[in-house]
């Protein structure tokens, strides 16, 4: 008998897994995703990537605003599913929902648990300078990413990796991993997570994406990659926000935030330790462009200073 699967997810990361599960021949009896949200300048309602995938695959779809009610529980119970697969769904699953599928609920989590439990594991791993990250398939329980581990799949973070490139790699890894585990569903042997090495990946904020030039250049460079593409590391230049999409550490020194070179296609800014050579930037209302092109249009005076974040009260 084909395994009956309920799938719950919302962004691209989850849609990749949904496509893989469907392609592997599992019986996806219901797809859950968050309600359509207003987006863009016109604030038009936009379907999530998982909704778009479900519609393209012709799968049954529901978009409850919450799973903490009898109506949602009845909907899920009626599916008589063997298992629920959850990937970046964005809604909490209460204990009564977790108990509905015969074989429980499996979560695709983008970190090597118990490191980086929570909302932004990819970004926090890059910002912290981790050498590797990965995907864990986890048997869900009532805690925040605390369930027993079904399988672990590692990925070596490259020096040029951004949150986007790691996301794309882990989405593929997670899709392959969940299919493999579903194919062995009755033989899985979850292992409790270690009680050491626990860290939390708190949700990103736009405020923390503002660059503090007093930080070492290596720290800022990781911050730039971790916040690419969202929310985008930024600074203030000539009273206007400036996003920095790519930079490299160089062995130069000066007062933090001071421009050391701003000509011949270069824009080098001193940091708390060493300096950063900016490589791709984006002015407010403009497009991202190489620094050589930016500097050609707006010469940068050496000795000028980029703004620092306001001190916290």
From TrEMBL:
Enzyme Commission code: 2.1.2.9
InterPro entries: Fmt, Formyl_trans_C, Formyl_trans_C_sf, Formyl_transf_N, Formyl_transf_N_sf, Formyl_transferase-like_C_sf, GART_AS, Met-tRNA-FMT_C
Domain Formyl transferase N-terminal residue range list: 5-179
GO molecular-function term, one example from the UniProt record: methionyl-tRNA formyltransferase activity
Protein purpose: Attaches a formyl group to the free amino group of methionyl-tRNA(fMet). The formyl group appears to play a dual role in the initiator identity of N-formylmethionyl-tRNA by promoting its recognition by IF2 and preventing the misappropriation of this tRNA by the elongation apparatus.
Cellular component, GO, one term: cytosol
Domain Formyl transferase C-terminal: from-to ranges: 203-298
Native source organism of the sequence: Paralysiella testudinis
Reactions catalysed, as given in the entry: L-methionyl-tRNA(fMet) + (6R)-10-formyltetrahydrofolate = N-formyl-L-methionyl-tRNA(fMet) + (6S)-5,6,7,8-tetrahydrofolate + H(+)
List of residues binding (6S)-5,6,7,8-tetrahydrofolate: 111-114
Keywords: Protein biosynthesis, Transferase
A Pfam family recorded for this sequence: Formyl_trans_C
UniProt record similarity statement: Belongs to the Fmt family.
Listed name of the protein: Methionyl-tRNA formyltransferase
């Amino acid at each position: 008998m084909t395994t009956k699967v309920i799938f719950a997810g919302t962004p691209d990361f989850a849609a990749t897994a949904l496509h893989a599960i469907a392609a592997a021949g599992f019986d996806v009896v219901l797809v859950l995703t968050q309600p359509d949200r207003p987006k863009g300048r016109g604030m038009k309602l936009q379907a999530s990537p998982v909704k778009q995938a479900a519609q393209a695959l012709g799968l049954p779809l529901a978009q409850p605003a919450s799973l903490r009610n009898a109506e949602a529980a009845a909907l899920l119970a009626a599916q008589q599913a063997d298992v629920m697969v959850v990937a970046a769904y964005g809604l909490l699953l209460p204990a009564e929902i977790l108990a509905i599928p015969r074989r429980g609920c499996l979560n695709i989590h983008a970190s090597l648990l118990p490191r980086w439990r929570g909302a932004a594991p990819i970004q926090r791993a890059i910002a912290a300078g981790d050498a590797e990250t990965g995907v864990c398939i986890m048997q869900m329980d009532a805690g925040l990413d605390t369930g027993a581990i079904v399988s672990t799949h590692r990925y070596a973070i490259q020096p040029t990796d951004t949150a986007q490139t790691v996301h794309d790699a882990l989405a593929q890894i997670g899709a392959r991993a969940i299919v493999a585990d579903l194919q062995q569903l009755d033989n899985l042997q979850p292992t409790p997570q270690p009680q050491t090495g626990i860290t939390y990946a708190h949700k990103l904020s736009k405020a923390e994406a503002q660059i503090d030039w007093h930080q070492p250049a290596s720290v800022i460079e990781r911050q730039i990659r971790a916040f690419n593409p969202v929310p985008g590391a930024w600074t203030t230049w000539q009273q206007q926000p400036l996003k920095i999409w790519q930079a490299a550490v160089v062995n130069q020194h000066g007062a933090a935030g001071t421009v050391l070179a701003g000509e011949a296609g270069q824009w080098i800014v001193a940091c708390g330790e060493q300096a950063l050579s900016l490589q791709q930037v984006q002015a407010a209302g403009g497009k991202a462009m190489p620094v050589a092109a930016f500097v050609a249009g707006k010469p940068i005076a050496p000795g000028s200073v980029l703004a620092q974040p306001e001190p916290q009260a």
